[in-house]
Design brief:
Layout lengths: L1 H34 L25 E6 L3 H6 L7 E7 L2 E11 L2 H8 L6 E5 L14 E5 L9 H11 L7 E8 L2 E10 L3 H8 L5 E3 L14 E2 L2 H18 L50 H4 L8 H16 L3 H4 L2 H14 L13 E6 L2 E6 L14 H5 L16 H7 L2 H17 L2 H18 L7 H28 L81 H15 L22 H26 L1
Parallel strand pairs: 1-6
Antiparallel strand pairs: 1-2, 2-3, 3-4, 4-5, 5-7, 6-7, 8-10, 10-11
């Protein structure tokens, strides 16, 4: 009996140790799961199923749009109403899918060109919520307007993804309609539910697409825009801005004691803008604690938001504007990676440009991140003008139409020596590891046979060849300029480190131009530069924007310029291009051994999932203690 008791005691003690060891391991696992980011660990992104199918960018995919009422659909594309279609994607048939015309100014631009080559928005789940393309709910088919290279969007998103910034997936597709050739498009993952689940897990946070211009926040925006009104309001607010700086301007009529009411979105003064591009909420500035002051954010929400969500985001914007608790309100790694690529490609049609749009804001548990969108006017083609200035744009001074402190989600980087140095380290890493030249070469080889046979293309094949060559020149020189900025420690002033006079930016496609169909006739008003539009310029953009209403019949082409600002003839430009080829035939883009892992892009785990794991761990701990107690007794 004593022997039995001794064995029982030994077994009890042995089991007791096992129970405590298992409990301790579970607690360690829980802590790592909850706070792994603090230890440098990353949670694997969720694999949806569509990533390596449609977005396999080693080939051009095939999409056939099958519709009996195609002509009717195209005729009413600008209405953005959904039609039912059958989509055949690489041979797979998806029935009862929703499709509509997509775009803001591009819708009216295509219409004004007498072209039918619209961009399309595809919703696999529009009529049946259970229908997806291997988990993908929304898909954008971009018509590559204003892009003779056919790859400005593609290059930017690919660089974002390869550098580890959270960005939509994309690939080239050749579209046929009822079996007949339609054209080469870019398929882009919709930044909606599937995107969020792929990057942030099933319990993702909140998503917004702030826009105060009626120019890019959602369906139908931009169609009432009138350039005459816009320019007049720009001039009015520029005068007001100069008066505020002590410059005497013509006296305005006596308005008595009139005081404009407080407007949503941070409006209320010429400096902030009476709507339009100066809206403080779209700049992600803290206005006050009143939720009504952020209507341009709430109205653009892509997820269902609550009062608690609004309060939480306002508090984050407050801390951001005050430069407080940055690590708690900013996803530091992701935002820096976003701005490295964003500032490399010089996109004036963006958050850092005068328009202050074309970005998504993601927020989870008070922490914010930027998600890129719409780069068809990147690489200086929105600003136009002198390539020399654009290529040498200082990486610490990317804001046009304002100052860095007017863009809080960028300014926190440059306002801190520690974060500025980190940003510079990331930039050096990007130049060292991402093979930009290789991305361009691979895309060119992939799509050139499809560009040759594209029946609806906005540009000729010869313009495509010129555009791609110009893009490679731009990137080579941009990389050289930034390398010299980092080496010399001069990253805030334009030092003209490289000579970009041999490049004509409009050769890559420019604002408003669609190639042989895309001439609206005439030019922009003399001296107009969209990058110098006064910050806060005017009231909310009218609806029904039509680029053909631009004064002087703007055709979207800024004059080709040499380094001295003189307009260049085609022969002069050709000679400069030949000279550039001869002088740079051996130059290469930075290359490296960076291995892109699609499934590990710095994603976080939702708070609800964390609490589930915590509860499970507590239950396991309790069970372990009970078992240990029972066996001990």
């Amino acid at each position: 009996m004593a022997i039995t008791w001794g064995k029982s005691m030994a077994g009890s003690k042995h089991f007791d140790k096992i129970a405590w060891i298992v409990t301790a391991l579970m607690l360690i696992i829980t802590v790592l799961f909850m706070y792994g980011g603090a230890f440098g660990l990353e949670v694997m992104a969720r694999t949806m199923g569509y990533e390596n199918r449609l977005f396999d960018n080693t080939r051009v995919h095939a999409i056939d749009i099958v519709m009996n009422d195609w002509d009717e659909f195209i005729a009413s594309a600008t209405s953005e109403e959904y039609y039912t279609t059958t989509l055949v994607v690489d041979g797979e048939v998806f029935k009862n899918v929703g499709i509509r015309g997509k775009g803001n100014t591009s819708l009216s631009s295509v219409s004004a060109m007498n072209s039918d080559r619209y961009s399309f928005k595809v919703e696999f789940d529009h009529y049946d919520s259970s229908t997806t393309y291997h988990g993908l709910d929304k898909l954008n088919l971009n018509n590559l307007i204003q892009d003779s290279t056919m790859m400005k969007d593609y290059l930017t998103y690919t660089m974002m993804n390869e550098f580890g910034a959270t960005a939509p997936l994309c690939s080239f597709v050749y579209i046929t309609v009822n079996g007949a050739d339609w054209g080469l498009y870019l398929a882009i993952e919709g930044v909606e539910d599937s995107f969020l689940e792929r990057n942030y897990g099933a319990n993702y946070g909140e998503l917004y697409k702030p826009d105060s211009m009626s120019f890019g926040g959602g369906r139908g925006n931009g169609k009432d825009f009138n350039m005459d009104d816009f320019m007049n309001r720009s001039n009015t607010d520029e005068n007001a801005d100069k008066s505020a700086q002590g410059i005497t301007m013509p006296q305005m009529p006596d308005m008595g004691n009139f005081e404009p009411p407080k407007m949503p979105g941070g409006f209320g003064s010429p400096r902030d803008g009476f709507g339009g591009m100066g809206a403080s909420d779209v700049k992600l500035k803290y206005v006050d604690d009143d939720a009504d002051s952020y209507s341009n954010i709430w109205n653009s929400a892509k997820t269902d938001i609550s009062t608690a969500d609004q309060t939480r985001l306002i508090e984050s914007l407050k801390n951001l504007s005050n430069g407080e608790q940055i690590e708690s309100v900013i996803d530091i790694d992701q935002v820096i990676r976003y701005f490295v690529i964003h500032n490399y490609v010089c996109n004036g049609d963006s958050y850092t440009g005068a328009m202050i749009h074309n970005y998504y804001l993601y927020e989870e548990n008070g922490k914010m991140a930027m998600i890129p969108w719409d780069y068809n006017l990147a690489f200086g083609t929105f600003q136009g003008g002198n390539a020399q200035n654009v290529i040498n744009t200082p990486i610490d001074s990317p804001v046009s139409g304002g100052s860095s402190d007017d863009r809080p989600i960028w300014n926190w980087i440059i306002a801190s020596k520690e974060y500025t140095e980190l940003y510079h380290q990331y930039f050096a890493e990007f130049l060292n590891r991402v093979d930009i030249d290789g991305i361009i070469d691979n895309a060119y080889d992939l799509i050139k046979p499809y560009v040759e046979k594209d029946p609806t293309a906005f540009y000729s094949y010869e313009e495509f060849e010129t555009g791609v060559e110009t893009l490679q020149q731009f990137c080579t020189l941009r990389s050289e300029s930034i390398s010299m900025q980092l080496t010399n420690g001069e990253t805030t002033s334009n030092m003209n480190y490289v000579n970009g006079s041999g490049i004509t930016l409009s050769d890559m496609g420019s604002m408003g131009r669609g190639g042989e169909f895309g001439s609206f006739g005439g030019k922009m008003p003399e001296g107009f530069d969209p990058s110098k539009i006064p910050d806060g310029s005017g009231a909310e953009m009218p609806k029904d924007f039509d680029p053909s209403q631009i004064p002087g019949g703007f055709n979207g082409n800024f004059p080709d310029q040499s380094s001295d600002g003189m307009e260049m003839t085609p022969s002069e430009n050709a000679n400069m291009t030949d000279s550039w080829r001869n002088n740079n035939q051996n130059s290469q883009m930075p290359r490296g051994d960076f291995n892109f892992n699609l499934n590990s892009m710095g994603n976080t785990v939702s708070s609800s999932t964390t609490w589930i794991w915590l509860v499970v761990s507590v239950l396991i701990l309790g069970a372990g203690l009970i078992i240990a107690k029972v066996y001990k007794d």
